Each structure stands twice: as C-alpha cells, then as structure tokens.
Input
Amino acid sequence: MGTRAFFDKDLCGGILIIAIGATAAWAGVNYRIGTIRHMGPGFFPVAVGLAMVFVGTLMAASSLRTSIIGRTGDSKLTKASLPDFRGTACLVSGLILFVVCGKILGLLPATFAIVFVSALGDRSNSIKNATILAIAGCVVAVVVFWWGLDIQLPLFNGWSSTL
Amino acid sequence: MSMATSHNLLYGFEIAFQGTNLLCSFAGVLLGNLIGVLPGVGALSAISMLLPLTYAMHPVSAVMMLAGIFYGAQYGGAIGAILLNLPLHPPHAVTCLDGYPMAKAGRGGAALGITMIASFFAASVGIVVMIFASPLLTAFALKFSSAEMFSIMLLGLLTGATMSRGSPLKGIAMTLFGVLCGIVGADLSTGTFRFTFGIPELIQGVELVPVAMGLFGVAEFLNNINKLTVDSKGARVNVSEMLPNRTEVKQAFWPMVRGTLVGTFFGAMPGTGPAITTFVAYALERKVSKTPEKFGTGMIAGIAAPEASTHAKVQIDFIPTLSLGVPGDAVMALILGALIVQGIAPGPGLINSHPDIFWGLIASFWIGNVILIILNVPFIGIWLKLLRIPFRFLFPLAMFFIAVGVFMTQNSFFGIWELLAFGSLGAIFSSLGFSVAPVLLGLVLGPMLEDNFRRALLIANGDMSVFVRRPISCVFIMICGALLLGVTVSTLKKWQRSKRQAGRNRMQAQSAD
Output
C-alpha cells in the first residue's frame, strides 16, 4: 500500500454534493418558490438543490453498501489522489499575487510574480529556472498582450501608458 | 446535391475565403495544434485559454478561429498519444494502445500520417452529413415550443452526465452543480438576485471563461504538479516517414470507414463524449478483426478507427449545437458560450438569421482540415521539440496566460477570484473521482433549461403533463427515462457481480484458514 487511506471517495463526494444541494435548496426557499403556474425565482434552485441532495444520498449510500462488500484501494481517498501541497500553495498564491500586484504595481510585476511563484511550485524547478521563465513571461506580456492586444492594464502603474 | 445547398455552400466558401476569416481559421488551427501538442494541455484548456482572443473579433471570424483551435488541438493530442504514449487527452487514450507500439517500431510517422488521412476522411463525411442534416433538423426544430426545448435540453444534459467518464451518478451530480452555477445572478423574469452573496459582479452571472479555465486549466495543473512525469524518449520522426506505405493504407481503409460510421452514430446522440466514441470504435475493430490478439502491438486499424470516429463525432456534434442550440459536449458548450458572448442567440433560428456563421463555418471546416494537413508535414519536427518541453516549464507560463486571459474578458480582476474558486473546486472534485466536464454543460444549458421550463408551464397553465402530452417532447422524455433505467440496471448488475466476487473471496479466505 504505502499511502495511508483516508476516506471513501464516494462517501466524501456524496456528502459534499448533499451539502451543496441542501444549501442551495435552503437559500432557494427564501427567494419565493411561487406556484407551479407562476413560478417564483426560488422554484428552480429548490428543485436543483433537492435533486443534488437525492443524488448525493444515492452516492453515499452506494459507498456504504460497497464498503460492506469490500472494495479495492482505488475507491479510497489517499494522499496520492490529493493535489500536492507545495504545488497547490504556490499556484494559489501565484494567482492572488497576480491580482494584488496587478492592481497596485501594474502588468509586468504581476506577470513576474505569477510565473515566478507558480514555477517554484514544482520541486524540480530552481530559483534560476523560475527567474528565466518569469522574464520570458514578461517579454510575452509586453509583446503579445500590451503591444499586440492592447491590454487595459499599464506595464507599471503611473508612467508606462505613454511609452 | 440540390441547387439551394450548393448555392449556400458556395456562399460559405466565399465567406471563409475572405482575408480575415481565412487568417483566423489558419491562426486557430496553428495555435490549437501548438497548444494541443503541449503535454498536460487538452483541447478544452486550449479553447478556454484562447477564447478571450476572439472577443474583439467579428462573430464569424471568432467561431471559425475557435473551431480551428478545436481540431488543431485535437490533432495535436494524437501526436503526444502516438509518439510518447501520453494518454493525457481522453479521446486519444485508445490511440496510445497501438500508436505507441508503432512509434517504437519506427513507424510513428506512418501512424501520424494515417491519423491525418483518417481524420480528414471522417471530417469530410461529417461535414457532408452536417450540410444535409442541419437544415432538416432546423426545419423540424422551428416547430418546437418551450416544452420540446426543455425536453431536448434535459436529454442533452442527461446523456452528457451519464455517458461521460466515471460513474453516472457522479456525472449527474456534476451536471446539477453546473446548472446550479448557471442560476447565479439576476433572475430573468423577476430580477431577483440569486446566490450573488452581495457581490455586485455576480449579478451578471458566473462568467464562462473563468469557470472553463478554472476547471480545465488550473484544476489540471493542481492535480498534475509534482506528479506528471513524461518520458520523452524514443520520439523521432522524419517528414519522409509520414507517408504510410500501400499496405498500411489498405489495412487502414475499412477501419477508417467503420470508425467514421461509429462517430456519426454517436455524434447524432447529444451528450456522448468523444472518449466513449473512440472506445466503441476500437472495440468494434477488435471484434471484426481476424487477429484480435494482435491489437495493442501496433495494429494500424487500432489507430485509424478511433481517430476517424472522434473526428466524425466532433463534426456531427456541431449539428445539434448550431441547429438546436443544444451543445453535445463541454467543447461545444464553450463554442456556444462564445456565440452567446458575441450577442448571437443560439437555437433553431440561427441558420436562417445568421447564414454567414453556419455556412461559413462549414466551409472553414474543410479549409481548416486542409490547413491542418499542410501545416503538419513541415511542422512535425517543431511539434516534437514542443513535446519535449518539460511540464515544469510549461505550467507557470500557462498560469500567466490563463490569468491574463481571464482579466481581459472583462477588464477586471474579479474573474481571477472566480478562476481560483473553480480551480480549487475542480481539483477537489477530480480527486474525489468526479469528471468535471459536465459542469460546463450544465452551466451553459442551465439558464436555457430554466427559462423554457418556466415558459412551458406558464403557457400550459401549470399543467406538468404538457411535457408528455406533446408527442415530440414525449419521445425525448421517454428516452430520458430509458437512459436512467438503463444506467440503474447496469449499476445494480455491477453491484451484484462485485458482491458475488466478494463472497467468493471470503470463501477462499475461509478455506485458506
């Protein structure tokens, strides 16, 4: 085995779907359901939400049933089936940095940030690699997006729009 | 061919040969091929990544470019499957089985050549079917009221959900989730804000591009990072090898025809993905072959049939998308979404009100396929070099393209948050074994589904039987029912089998004690 099994995929998935569906149905009730002749805005959300609860229940039930029978490790949520932690952290913070740098500093810093930080998410990328990639990204940003496609974002906030 | 059809077709070629349109078609095929070749990037991510580029274009050019990106990317996926055994693009997973052994035996070039011939042949058949079937279907569909529209959309969603990869239950759950996301925003008839969480940007609804890029771009990268290892050894191809020899062409001919028929058949059923089509085509080849045991060792039939089937299928897929406004799969949903963004209402009226889009697109399919062949002969060396680019260099730049693309669709940073949300959700869903493609189908079809549902019941004075009283609608509903029944029966059978298996295992364990 090697990897530790956490939970059953179908059970977790079913519970997740039930949770989303129940929330939607509950919120839909507050939007006025109306009658079948004159449906209010809440009718459809409630219907979809309830359908999700139903499907989620079936999924969870089937997982309980099959777990009694006993199944292979494939149906278990293991560490191997989850996204890598470092990669996730870097990709997510790369996107957040893109927004923050883009708003405050401009296109080029934002480009550099997202490429550099995302690249560091891969364990085999060195700082040097990441820097080269980020510079390549900046070149593309200037040539394709700023010069070619006229992106509505200054290269650097403040001075570059008249370059 | 009737006069009107040939006249329309000529008109289509006239449009497709216009400078800008031709350029867009060419650029689309080139970019699609370029991106489709890259490991870890499929046709869906290629289209969603390049979708923002088309926003500023004329609708005709935009659709032509998107279609070009699509089949360019599709062909690009076959290159990786054959030469590197990369089953990263689901429709080509089957092609790996015989394509890679051929590549190892030094006939990779011929395999690619056969792929090209098969896809051109299949696409041509698909285009001809499209030319004749679409106007017929449109004439038929123009009689549809909202009840029929609702039923056929329901059928499209249901087939999309149950025929996609993985368990049907999970597919339905993902479709419903997509429909739920489609509800977000101001209600069409009352203006009530639904699920907007007090965020003003959400009043317009969830944007298509961030969702598509989140689910198929960011989520893919999240799942692949530090996990994807690509062995790029043994991939060497010369241009001169791309021409398959005579026996190979002979061996490939009938599989190609059969694959095309399979693709045409599956294309006529909305909602069936291209992956299942290729599996059926491959299985059929094994069944009719005199030497079924040789499959998996480099049989040319095992390449020609699935590749032909998927290309015929995607071509036929355009029929319901353009003539009914019901997309067959996630890719078609994206193209339909692009049309909606352009301000063009999809539905039975499209061919009559926008003949330039429909006939121009048909002509551009042919032109695009020719471009694809011309392009791939000299460029195969470059594609091979691209294939060797490690994933770790690709995804940081791809992340940047995605982020900039999302920003450019609305000139606002809000889309990045949507991107982040759907990327994380997509990664969670796929690690739980869900296939996320139906979400997109639900998102695009959901609002239309609700609109037609409410309108049908308003007209029928709240009488639910309207959906089964009208004959055409009744047929669609009955197919939906049959589909659900079939899925239930097959699932129960599978359970029964696994139960028996488990019982046997337990007995063995006991007897071992």
Observations:
- The beta strands of chain A are 5-8, 76-78.
- The first helix of chain A runs from residue 9 to 29.
- Chain A touches chain B through 81 residues (CB under 8 Å).
- Residues 5-81 of chain A form one domain.
